[in-house]
Amino acid sequence: MEENIADHMGRVHPRVPRRKYSEMNILRTPRARHNWMPWRPIVAVVLTGVVIAGIYFAVTVGSSGRLGRFYADHSYYDFGRVPQSVSEHDFTFQNLGEGTLVIIGATTSCGCTTARVEIGGDQSPQFGMHNNPSWTGRLVSGSAAKLSVYYDAAEMPDMYVGDRYIYLRTDDPGNPEVQFVIHVQEA
């Protein structure tokens, strides 16, 4: 009879504290004490996933729920043969999203290549391979901007032929770092 009471208490009243079993002189069965434990890891994993997803959407979408979306009509330019001086090309890009697109800065792959961003007539500092300044630009929905790239052939000790890269950082989750490429052949 005492076994049935312990089994009943374990199945029907699984959260009864141990001291109550002691007061009633009932031996608590191990199954009754641990019947909720297998669900604990599953609940923890589901709750962790929900929290991570919430943080991700809060950071990427923000409070307005609208994002900027980066678009460039081209990201590659072939200078062809360049003289031993500075050559320049302008890449244009747009914000096709509903929210503001934030440009976080830029870097280049070589000291011979530098870049500037121009948004609405305001120009960024010059970016290069090293010691880039902290800069942020904002591009409202539907507007365009310009990335001016400069290749200085005199910075190269030899007659270089190849590609140089410019990396533009944005807050667009689909394009957090956009790569532009220039191809040069020094004459």
Number of domains: 2
Q: What is the CATH top level name of the largest domain?
A: Mainly Beta
> Gyration radius, to the nearest Å?
31 Å
Number of E strands? 10
Average of pLDDT: 85
Helices, by number, come to: 4
Strand order in space, largest sheet:
1-3-8-5-6
Assigned CATH architecture of the largest domain: Sandwich
Percentage of residues in strands? 35-45%
Provide an overview of this structure.
- The protein is α+β, with helices and mostly antiparallel strands and about 190 residues long.
- It folds into two domains: about 1-60, no CATH class; about 70-185, Sandwich (Immunoglobulin-like).
- About 25% of the residues lie in helices and about 35% in strands.
- The chain is built from four helices and ten strands, in the order ααααββββββββββ.
- The strands form two sheets. The protein has a five-stranded antiparallel beta sheet, with no helix packed on it. The chain has a five-stranded mixed beta sheet with strand order 2-10-9-4-7, with no helix packed on it.
- A hairpin with a 2-residue loop joins β5 and β6.
- The N and C termini lie far apart (about 100 Å).
- The model has no long low-confidence stretch (mean pLDDT about 85).
